[in-house]
């Protein structure tokens, strides 16, 4: 029964990801990552007995501990990836803001020259 509930929950999550992708709430760049994550969740829920044996083989005799360990490591990897992406976007925004300020200054200077009737250079 627990396995059935786990499969239903992970299928619901997979459905949410597909829905977010179709409605463009989740960009294609990230959709693949989340689709793979959801598919792995469904696979893990379907293979609970195998996960039990694998965790025991690793020396972890309580399988939910193994699942939480893998999940935490995966979430940390996702956070690092998102932080790198956020840092890159922050740098791009800073550069764009600086370029916009320079162009705005040049445009203001051109308008001032035009108002005075001076030839443009």
TrEMBL record:
Regions that span the bilayer: 6-23, 30-51, 57-80
InterPro entries per record: DUF2304
Keyword list, A-Z: Membrane, Transmembrane, Transmembrane helix
Pfam families: DUF2304 (PF10066)
Protein name, per record: DUF2304 domain-containing protein
Organism: Paenibacillus lycopersici
């Amino acid at each position: 029964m627990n396995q059935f509930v786990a499969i239903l929950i992970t299928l619901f999550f997979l459905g949410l990801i597909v829905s977010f992708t179709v409605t463009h709430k989740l960009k294609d760049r990230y959709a693949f990552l989340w689709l793979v994550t959801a598919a792995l969740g469904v696979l893990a829920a379907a293979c609970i007995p195998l996960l039990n044996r694998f965790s025991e083989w690793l020396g972890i005799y309580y399988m939910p501990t193994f699942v939480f360990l893998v999940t935490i490591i995966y979430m940390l990897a996702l956070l690092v990836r998102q932080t790198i992406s956020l840092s890159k976007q922050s740098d791009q925004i800073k550069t764009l803001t600086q370029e916009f300020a320079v162009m705005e200054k040049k445009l203001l200077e051109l308008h001032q020259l035009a108002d005075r009737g001076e030839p443009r250079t």
